[in-house]
């Protein structure tokens, strides 16, 4: 029993558990291990994976962001509309990244400086930003005028689509930030004990603001790639993304109580979410049942987080 508990709760144990589950799925689900399906699976988790990089930092600092789905959709709309209006894809991409960063910065200022609860603040931002996306497009999808925009999603490097490479690069960058920089160490310290961090000289308000600004920037990158992939700016895109991202992070060992996070764990959590959806599609399971499975995964993630927190507290 203790060995099983260690496998479920430990970071290395999570990887082992994932490897076992992957092997079982590979042996039992037809066409799962084909190159086409593997690349499709990785492409399907690009949006979740990219946004999870900074959601990990939000959760680790004892915050969270419910507005990520709306920010992804809004940033994709800005990228497409600005590119169409200026005739320049570069200007469109820059406009989208600025827009996403401003949304994140707004969240950070409201939450960190004005001390509004993160749940209420990001819930409000989620509605506001989704509304802006709908207003700017009159509730309709906006087509891309320049076909070169599609190459952001269609281009490949060594046979692997560019969005997957971007996701991998962001995994590496934010893994380094979390484990090897003062910024990452301060993020975990704030999540562990904000008051002790403040007394130790950490500017908690500034740190939390920067984390949300980074969240907005990364959402913009995800929004640009999503718009290129679906060949238009969709005001209703990425609905429910926030729940999938939080589920992936918590499944990967990021604590909802703050102070604990692992990039490797987040990667495993993202892959678990992707594989679950991929297997359901391969087995032709109706979309209605997929909602139930996603809900159960979220519930399992929260239960595991509670179990990990209780175990750590007991050891302490």
UniProtKB/TrEMBL annotation:
Location(s), subcellular: Cell membrane
Transmembrane parts of this sequence: 12-33, 39-59, 66-83, 89-111, 118-137, 157-178, 210-231, 237-257, 264-282
UniProt membrane topology term: Multi-pass membrane protein
Source taxon at top rank: Bacteria
UniProt keywords, alphabetically: Cell membrane, Membrane, Transmembrane, Transmembrane helix
NCBIfam families the UniProt entry points to: PRK11285.1
Protein name: L-arabinose ABC transporter permease AraH
